[in-house]
Structure formats: structure tokens, C-alpha cells
Amino acid sequence: MPATEFQALRNVPYMGVIFVVAEAVKLGFENGHPDWCNLGQGQPEVGPMDGAPDRLESFTITPHDHAYGPLEGIPELREAVATHYNRLYRQGKASQYTGANVSIANGGRLALTRAMAALGAVNVGYQLPDYTAYEDMFNTHLARLAPVPVRTAEADGFALTAARYEQAIEESGLAAFIVSNPCNPTGIAVRGDELQRIVDTSRAHDVTLLSDEFYSHFIYDEDRPVSAAAHIEDVNRDPVVIFDGLTKCYRYPGWRVGWVLGPPEVVETMARTASAIDGGPSRIAQRAAIEALEPSRADQETTALRQVFRKKRDEMATRLEKLGVRFAKVSESTFYLWGCLDGLPAPLNDAMTFFRKALERKVMLVPGQFFDVNPGGYRKGTSPYENWMRFSFGPPMDNLQLGLSRLEELVAEFR
Description:
It is built from eleven helices and 13 strands. Helix 2 (about 75-90) runs parallel beside helix 8 (about 285-290), helix 3 packs across helix 7 (about 265-275) and helix 5 (about 160-170) packs parallel to helix 6 (about 190-205). By secondary structure, the protein is α/β, with parallel strands linked by helices. It is globular and about 60 Å long. Strand 5 (about 175-180), helix 6 (about 190-205) and strand 6 form a beta-alpha-beta unit.
């Protein structure tokens, strides 16, 4: 019986990848099916990979790991995450992260959910387009939070510029801003001087920057990750809260290990929200995560990641452009390409139609309208992303190439 037939329940629609999977299941899709190509998937390939260390398949737990753990995570992993960030981003800086700056959660969405619950009754900015899950995170707090959309420009490659960020703060009286950087779905990374200006603006205006950095190591034009952590003056005072984990960059999404870095007061407040939301993270998964962050292993994994995924990015971008898909800017990060279909023959120039036709060929994609985050559904009318599509190069190369060949056959039918 549909949930809407129960008067006590609100209607919670499928969004983004979840919608795509639900529609594909109707046509026979199941995870691992060799004849399906999931070019919409939000996880990276998780098997053995050229140049990467062997996948972790066993680990030792302690007797204490059978018990409830601390809401903010076990001390050993909190210290390991702090050390990891100091090594990557804080070398030579006076202010260093410690375990007190770190909170662990069962995955990134849960960490972000805790953060949303910790915010007061304030205006919260967010960019468009951006990560689909933000919409329902906002929806559960609309009685308290006031979401303020900040639409980015195609001319800027859909990047959130520092100037646009400061303008939104001043015009809308923002107290917080949530943003995925590198961005899902556009694959754009704000970094260097531009990211420094955003962090400086957050400090100057006392705006809490919630920086979702789950794709931090998927950087294709240089061999180093990106994070606001490199631009913070005082890790205990600057209003910057960073979210990341093992899900994307270390290719362990099933472990559900995410973390938050920020001032200790923020970490403690989020732990209090965890007591009501989730009760704290799994001690067992945390124990395994410590080994995944061992420096030589972590660096080997992320170096291999950039090399392998750069090749897949290039393969997908080249073949999609030959099809007539255009990009405001070819992805420089994540494992997504954000492409416009307006150059394709009708009716394939409409993303939802293209999505349905691709499903018939056992290829999954995510229509752009899902990234037009619209809490409460208050904005009416046609989304400006109805002819945009998110293409994922998360799958292994052979499956990626099969999916692209099927899309080429599809477009050829309408030419």
C-alpha cells in the first residue's frame, strides 16, 4: 500500500539515483547484473584497481568493539582523521587539528543530517545545481531553517564564485551555507585563491560554511586533493565544517564511514544531535577505517584513483561530445560529467525522455532536474536543467564503454 494512504505519513518521493534505480528495477535491473550499465551511479567502482593497494577484506576488532561506542566516534579514528588532515593540508601551519575537532558518523548523509539538526533558526544558503539529498535534509527542518537558493551561472561552469557567495550572504542575511565542493553533479572544484576567498568571507561574516568534500581526491589536472582545510586560519575558531569519509575517495561506500572536522564546539553539538538521530557510529567499521587511512596505503589508493578515473573521464567526455552532448566545462573532479542535451535530435534533447529511452537499452542516467534542489517545492515552473544530464564514470571501464556504445546506438536511431 503506498505510504500516502496512511494519514500519519508524509509523501517522501524518490530522488536522484534512488529514483533511477527504482525505475530500472521495474525493467529487471538488480545490483551486479552484468547486462546493465549504471552510468548514473553515485559510487565509484569498488573492486581491484590498477596501481591501488589490495582491497581490505579482513581486520581485527577488540572486545570493546562489541559495545556501544562514543557518539562522536572512537578516539583512535578521530585522531587518525585529524592526523590525516594535518598531513595533507596543515603542514607548517600553527593551528593543527586534534581528535577534538573530529566527529565520526555512519556515512556522509548522516553526518550532514546531524549538522542540519544542529543549526538554529537561520537562513541557510545552497548552490544550484547541487547534491539531490540536500532537498529532503532541508525538508525535515523547514519549520526552523530558511533555505536560500543561489543559482550558479553556466558561463562560470556552474562554479560558486567567491563574489557570488559574498553577494548572497549580504543580500539574504545568511548564517550558514552548504555546498558540495568538488560539486556533485557538475564536477567543478572551487580551489586555490577562490576557495581562500570563500573561507575568508565565511570568517569575516561569521557564516558557517558546511563544506561537503566527499570527492576531494578526484582532481584530474593536478595530483593533489582539494579542501577548505588548507585555507583555515584557526581550526578551533573559523566557522568552517568539513564533511568527507571513505565512501568515494577510498572506494569503501558499504562501510558507511564518514567524518566531520570543525571547531570542538561544533563537534560536541553534532554529537548531541546524534544521541537522538542515530546513537553513534559502528565501532567495527571505525576499526577498519583506521587501517584504510594509514598514510602509505591512503596515498597509494588516491594516486591510483586519479590515474584510473582520469582515463575514464577522458573516454566518456570524448564519446559524449561526438554524440552532440555539450559541457559548460568538462569535469575537473568527481566522477560525473554534467552535460547539456540541447544539441541532440528531438525528443532526446529532453533529459527525462533520454533517460527513459536509455533505460530501455539497460543504461541508467540521472536527469538534471533532480539537482535543482527545491526544499518544500516552493519554486514553481520548469527547471532550467530539464535538458541537462549527469553522466557517471563510476563503473569499471569495460562497463562504461558498453553503456556509451548503447547510447551511441540510441542517438543514431533519431538522426
